[in-house]
Amino acid sequence: MGIVVQKYGGSSLADADAIKRVARRIVDVKKSGHDVVVAVSAMGDTTDDLLDLANGVSPLPPAREMDMLLTAGERISMSLVAMAISDLGFTARSFTGSQAGVITDSVHGKAKIIDVTPGRITQAIGEGHIVIVAGFQGVSQDTKEITTLGRGGTDTTAVALAAALEADVCEIYTDVDGVFTADPRIVPTARKLDQVSYEEMLELAACGAKILHLRCVEYGRRYGIPIHVRSSFSQLHGTWVVNDPAAASEGETMEQPIIAGVAHDRSEAKITVVGVPDKVGEAARIFEALADAQINLDMIVQNVSAAATSLTDISFTLPRTDGQTAMTALARIQAEVGYDKLLYDDKIGKVSLIGAGMRSHPGITSKFFGALASAGVNIGMISTSEIRISVVVDENAVDDAVRATHTAFDLDADEVEAVVYGGTGR
Amino acid sequence: MGIVVQKYGGSSLADADAIKRVARRIVDVKKSGHDVVVAVSAMGDTTDDLLDLANGVSPLPPAREMDMLLTAGERISMSLVAMAISDLGFTARSFTGSQAGVITDSVHGKAKIIDVTPGRITQAIGEGHIVIVAGFQGVSQDTKEITTLGRGGTDTTAVALAAALEADVCEIYTDVDGVFTADPRIVPTARKLDQVSYEEMLELAACGAKILHLRCVEYGRRYGIPIHVRSSFSQLHGTWVVNDPAAASEGETMEQPIIAGVAHDRSEAKITVVGVPDKVGEAARIFEALADAQINLDMIVQNVSAAATSLTDISFTLPRTDGQTAMTALARIQAEVGYDKLLYDDKIGKVSLIGAGMRSHPGITSKFFGALASAGVNIGMISTSEIRISVVVDENAVDDAVRATHTAFDLDADEVEAVVYGGTGR
After folding, report:
1. Which residues form the ACT domain (chains A, B) (predicted)?
2. Is the terminal CB of chain A with fewer CB neighbours within 10 Å at N or C?
């Protein structure tokens, strides 16, 4: 029997009872003959509480010290999980990111994992212990400073551990039953996907499905780690994220769905640079300024210039949280670039249709746009990849757009499948 | 200008305002030209909160995981102090016990410091930073496990850092103005001591004065680190714990007081083993059993045996928290030793008179006992060292005994000197 890596998030570790439940689940896997390595997030509201403390002493705390502070959260949860396991008669050893050999770069607050050297973990496994590892954190290669991995960090920790330990599977426990064809809060008849490819999951994550973080899926794909997304509140099978779902389920190749799901995202804003002189290098200057300000753009659209004026408009979307920074950076180069004005719109939403099957099926785009038109939804921007079509719509039209698309592609289940767990303390 | 090491306890770090006040105090020392290294405890009630969490998941948590949990407390406070310093325009680096090179043995929950290898601290000092170190914690030499130092651990961390860094002084900040001739809550006219010898401070600490922990004073004496005990709530000079107070204050040798103070302790219990056969080896067997149970005894008294019976009684005091363990250990050897019965009394208190001057002044004992008699206090047990006389009295007689002794030795100040700070949040 091989190694099973599990990840439990904050909502699965909300209080003492939740921790005991997680401990029982871990022990069950150990009893079944597997070695178990568990990555944990901070308990429920711990991170928010720590952020409040930081804000109480400094409006702009140094990133190094912020990482030092926040990493206390997983330290608390991991030792409590180890204690709860010990109370069930099994031995557990908790390790910080640093002790677990999670080596990162030096970018505090959003460090990237460079390597995992799990010597202490394999030794503890060899001694028969269950291993609990603090998620979301590591130690920098050069400076030996404590770092955090940013959003979705514990998912990434879990997959990185699974890769380093050559685990059979990485189980990501969350408060929903798996990956759905759409957000069940918007589409009650959304279906749980039994399997989804890394490629589709990457697009889903990038397009606003919050269930798995992009970096975690990227890590899983690179090392070929099967990821099982499931609920810590039930015993149901969840969604397997694997290399090629069709090949994995032998004899079912015909059944690979064309569309994996409909994702949506209300966290972006749109900026339009109006009246950009249509000559070589102007667009480059604009995107250079945005890159210098460390802003990640998403969709970019440039219309053909009106022949009469030789001026063009450039629109792009970006995280709303970067909106002010981007506007400031662009204002600074107005004279240099000679554009007319800037428009800022944060009342937008993005709706994306994702499916590896659309590669070989023509007509997907027209069906998608037809569904939106029937629902009375106006399309603001369009962007496509080989397995994805995204549109920007009015923020208030997102729900209608998601529902219309979901129905148009026959994704609705016969009955409501989604259950929302853990509703009490969270 | 040399290095100043400071220690701030939990009551000095109760909330954001307290942390900002501590930061200003630290920055003031840095501005005066000193390098500053600060050891901090966990904030106010953090440790209790963490203990509650542990009790919530396991009635008997493994010591290793308990240390992992509790060390989160100083991690939080040290990063917050560093942030508050940064907010004042100075740079600070916080380090865990492990990062700071606090090397200990492997006894979780009460590890002893073996060595301090402060490479990262000296490097940070060299780069101009103020250094904040997590008190109370270290890393074990052999197993590289996180350990805690037990009660008074942060004081010990501070003095150990001062020794390793060859600091000019170790300032222990607390919520009283210094070391007093008696507990000001019992004796309002108690006087603050300007200076006290390591030797006297050791006896004071051992006899119940809670202001400095025994191990901290021992460490200071061994390495000759001047310890300045003072309040974080005022700018007053506190009490200097030094090698030879008389020699230190030149020209004032004649003024060295005979008595440093009166200490009391209500944390002990008394066990009497009644009817022990008065022959070789019986007492040894009793104390062997107690040592095997890891119990530290304080006072031990054996009366001469009644000639008629050849039986003797052995009484000793010990921490009340060890009472049950000791009784169990002794009950187990009753048949072997052949004693009659065990008596347990936890309604006792210990009052101690301490002063290096009593070495050369006869008549101290009779004056002490005379004061107790005048106050109507009955003496249960007596124990003495070269610079201390301790008596066990009824728990309810402790206050009267302390006051009577304090007055008899002319220790009362003309006016009330003691101020109790930080009364709000604590």
Report:
1. 271-347, 353-426
2. N
